[in-house]
Amino acid sequence: MRIEAIELRRVDIPLVTPFRTSFGTQDTRDCVLVRVVTDVGEGWGECVTMPWPLYSAESSDVVIPIVAAHMAPRLLGVDGIGPRDVARLLAPIRGHRMAKAGLEAAVLDAWLRAAGQSFASFLGVTATRVPCGVSVGIHDSTEALVETVGGYLDEGYVRIKLKIEPGNDVEAVAAVRRAFGEDVPLQVDANAAYEPGDIPLLRQLDAFGLLLIEQPFDEERLLANVDLRAAIDTPVCLDESAISAQVVTDAIRLGAVDIVNIKAGRVGGYLEAARIHDLCVAHGVPVWCGGMVETGIGRAANAVLAGMAGFSLPGDNSGFDRFYATDIVADPLRMVDGHLRVPTTPGMGFEVDPEAIEAVTVERVLLEAPSG
User: Fold this and answer.
1) How far apart (Å, rounded) are the C-alpha atoms in residues 23 and 18?
2) Cβ 219 vs Cβ 243: under 8 Å
3) Is the terminal CB of the chain with fewer CB neighbours within 10 Å at N or C?
4) Which residues partner with 367 through β-bridges?
5) Treating both helix axes as pointing N-terminal to C-terminal, what angle do 245-254 and 222-231 enclose, rounded to 10 degrees?
6) Mean pLDDT of 17-41
7) pLDDT on residue 371
8) Which helix (H) or strand (E) holds 18?
9) b/e string for 234-248 if b means 16 or more Cβ within 10 A?
10) pTM for the complete prediction?
11) Is 329 helix (H, G, I), strand (E, B) or coil?
12) Residues forming the active site
């Protein structure tokens, strides 16, 4: 293919309820959508940054400038480009994995549509549906938390993940266990909110039979995870730390991880996510597919990724209405019997709704290949 233009749209989409984690509260989804126009068609991707550089070093503020100044010039007008070329062409640019992932997804979508191939076929996915887990934000009271969790269980979610932070952890988990019993698959996500000195506190979570504790420490503190694994029975899962196949390899060799949460945006794209999946399968490390409050664009691609054989734990694959009253795609995925269908249409598995996208666009930049 030849990329003729790259359109970047910053969108701001209201959430049905605020979503609070240890690093902030989201009331809207502020992110950048990517549309690539090629000589064989167009494709869309989603950059899963947040409004602030607190989950990672990236934020929605920097996506458009970095793509316009440094990434787009490496892609526009290049003849014979395919999805596997995007990471190679952008490799000299350090970091900015979420921006790179959005570009790669858009190129992959265009390439698959032109070939009449589904993303599921491309990845060799044979599953027709994937189980839905839900991520529950921090609440002001345990009573409110229990009520929210009960509502999600009534809707059919098969796994509950509780966001935790110092001061909102052991009591919250205990309240959910008391209310719903030991049979509910339950895990916690710290989003790097704890210090190595908190290991005695985290050891208390062993009492609740959790599936895992996710990202307890800062992303660079792999050795702290080694110490934690030696001190507790609950499996330790990496999220923010797992930024590439190389880092995951190092974590496995160090003994710093039991389970890996794979997020395509965090690792630089769905192709790198698939490589991490294969690496973990080869080492017997369970994986699951995490979420970043994606719109229907990212949600469809995640449902396909989560269908790969090694994804043995339920992911954050909620239906679109977990976060949105309306979506920017015409065919949003809906949860049925606790599962999402795996899309099999050509491309990444969605059809955009241009009017809906236009209604939530707050900034638009069009970058075109040099003429001649």
Assistant:
1) 13
2) yes
3) C
4) 6
5) 40
6) 92
7) 82
8) strand 3-21
9) bbbbbbbbbbebebb
10) 0.96
11) strand
12) 163, 263
